[in-house]
Write a structure and sequence with these properties.
Length: about 110
Amino acid sequence: MAIVDPFELEQAHLYIIHNSTEVVPYVNQHLVRREQWIHNEHTHTFISWFKNQILQELSHPNNIVSETLRWLSERPKVHVFKYSSYMVNGYQFYTRMKDMLSTIQNI
């Protein structure tokens, strides 16, 4: 297990939610609220704003918030599995760090 850097965790979360088509209306709504915001401000505030919007919608009876939106509104876990190698179609691949420590190198 490894602990993910908070900045990297936020960037990964932002990337994932910005690439979900279900989130697009929320991005547009967030940007319209303050058109003078620069992209940087949006990046810093969208995650918490999005979570609050989803929570607010969930508080209404008969809400139509999907399970996907519920999961995306939550922050990712800070503890993640970390691997130094993986297998694809019978071939083993190593991370750069593990490969650098290896005494045998393919050229």
